[in-house]
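User: When convenient, might I ask for sequence and structure tokens for a protein?

AI:
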Amino acid sequence: MKSKTELEPSLEAVALQIYGSTDSAAYRRWVEYWKASRERNRELIRNFTTHSPLSLNGKTVLDIGCGTGGLGDLIGEECQTYVGAEYHQHVLQFSRPRGNVGYLQASGIDLPFPSESFDLILNFDVIEHLEGGSAWQIRSLKEMKRVLNPMGMIFLTTPNFWYPFDAHTELYFPQYLPRFLQDRYIRRFNPYFHREHASFKNIPLVKPGFLKRALKESGLVSLHDLPCCLDRSEYLRLHPIRGALSYLGLGWYTHAEFWTIIVHQEARRLQRRKLKSSWFYETNQPADGTALQFGPRIDFNQSSFGHQLGEGWYWHERDERGFRWIGKRAIFYLESTETVRYLLVKGFTPRPNRLKISVNGTAVGEHWSSEAEGFELKYLLPFRRTDKCMFEIEIEAKGVFKAENPEDHRELSTMIFSAEVTK
């Protein structure tokens, strides 16, 4: 009787079924590609983390096109739930579910999940394999939007049609040829391509203009100006020539592959607060360990929470442990994962003042303070939906005062100790 290990399939056996021989370079590339998937995915995650707020802790994550499960092996334990979805059973069979890591066979254009199921969606080099072309690609984007929670993010990569080298065929220019010549050209120089892909028409590479239009039609938008996790000003600084082209409207055309973070259109402005480049470095240092996590509470006795603060915040003048003083106007951000009803703000006013509190541009209340008064404010959130939301809270003071130290040129109004949204 054969052992379980002997009964399990191998990459080599599957490659032999596809290519018919163990001697071809295509056979070896296919086996090596899937054996290296873990390290390749590690590099993808590392690159996104360098430029973007990719935090997995406590998140529900969907990996579309998970292949043999290499990414699940890499990040699954960090997530609250990791789900790998793969259409092709001949590679999915190598994935190994366990604990909070699960896998299933599914199509990217018809995801079997309820709406708003996931905090993060990973879609690495998938949409160029949707054989239905542009219609299926738009349908796939709409499906990702449907299952993504309102403050979630999609991390997507796909090759650029206009880059001359095609990695699928390992040839130059096949996508530029007329359709009737593409397969002839590929058969002449890489005949093994058609052993796995019936035709090059089944690799509908994405053009920059189409991707932008498809995102708009799907209710999605790129978090950055350019599909490389950079805005135009950053790109100009790092790559002057290509950066200059971006100001001429050509910034999407110069990349071999698109690396883009995608969010709901209506959430883009607030989601950009999570980018490192949006923090005020001089006054808002990121909190240790949780710099990319936005939450429903800020407690300045615990950490600086600089990543959740906008303009108008200053260090405490004694211990410089956290941002406690505010100027005449200060903004901060709180994010809820469950339904909340109230905004709570605790603080202290050293002098008489009037504070006006607004949430997402809507005034929720005001507080008149006497001299040297502590306060605990509680306001009802006047919104129909308060779960899976980020709130922009603004505190505006009527008056400010100068610090006692003559070398301190700050204009201060009130000290804030904590703030939160709660049930």
In short: Confidence is low (pLDDT under 50) at residues 1-7, 286-290. The radius of gyration is 26 Å. The chain is about 25% helix and 30% strand. The chain has two domains: 36-168+203-273, 279-422.
